[in-house]
Design a protein that fits this description.
single chain; 108 residues; alpha+beta; Arc Repressor Mutant, subunit A; two-stranded antiparallel ribbon; 5 helices
Length: 108
């Protein structure tokens, strides 16, 4: 992942509604969700949700698939994992690390 891609993804996630939408899609898994289900689940107006989904798609964090008359949105796990790799690639100066909620232990 390049720096500009990481900035775009982080920028898209730096909004509470978009973060909630993305997390809901991650939880939904590979089946994804329609905008209607997302709107109902998150109690977000559909027009607002549409804007947020567009921003997440533009940042590469979600994919869109047409299934008949429905659009299915899915989290783009490859891009998400690429962002995590980008953020942690030089962790502990390249050593192997164990990360918990409170500590980072490195074998450096």
């Amino acid at each position: 992942m390049k720096e500009d891609q990481a900035v775009s993804a982080l920028s898209a996630l730096a909004h509470n509604q978009r973060l909630r939408v993305f997390r809901a899609l991650v939880v939904a898994g590979p089946e994804g969700l329609t905008p209607s289900k997302l709107a109902d689940q998150l109690d977000v107006p559909r027009n607002t949700l549409s804007f947020h989904l567009k921003e997440l798609a533009h940042a590469g964090l979600v994919t869109i698939e047409q299934q008949g008359r429905n659009l299915i949105y899915r989290a783009e796990y490859g891009h998400m994992n690429g962002l995590i790799r980008y953020l942690t690639e030089h962790c502990c100066q390249g050593g192997v690390c164990e990360v918990s909620d409170t500590t980072i232990r490195c074998d450096c």
